[in-house]
Amino acid sequence: MTRRPLTIFFLLVFVVTWAIWVPRAIDPDGPAGAIGAVWTYGPALAAVLAAALTGGLGDLGRRLIRWRVGLVWYAVALLGPVVVALIVAGVNAVLGGEWALTWESPAGLLPLFVVLALTDGLGEETGWRGFALPRMLTRMSPLTASLILGLIWAAWHLPLFWTETSPLHGQPIPLLFV
After folding, report:
1. Which of 9, 91, 92, 108 maximizes the CB count within 10 A of its CB?
2. 58-98: per-residue pLDDT in tens?
3. CA distance linking residue 13 with residue 80, whole number of Å
4. 3-class DSSP assignment, residue 89
5. How far apart are the C-alpha atoms of 81 and 114, rounded to whole Å?
């Protein structure tokens, strides 16, 4: 196991997440429905399990608490998705669509983005960028590693395209791969 940490991680990330997401896609109101709605912690759980099985738990923990850039970049990372969401909603409205974001006040967006940072950010990125990417970068260029990881990341989301309660439901699958 210690010789194949990436293989262990990728197997675990799909098994752990799809064990909830596939039943949720089949029956969104079933027992997996409520859990599946917050199951973006699958990559983090897979990373912790893979690190424990392959002897890299300490390294993963250090990556989570290491500050390698200034605070301004953390603000950019946290506020960037907010800005992108507002731009996308604005462009959609200008092109004749509906304003995609609804809230009673701008302060109402804060809890949403805090939840997204804690689920999609911490839940996914602990696995993808905290565990997988550093190991991939030891064997391949940043571009190659990012492209391969991006394809795996997109494939990981596939059950959400068939889950009625998911924002990806009914969306064009190739778009996520792009």
Report:
1. 9
2. 888 888 788 778 888 888 877 787 788 788 778 888 888 87
3. 26
4. helix
5. 11
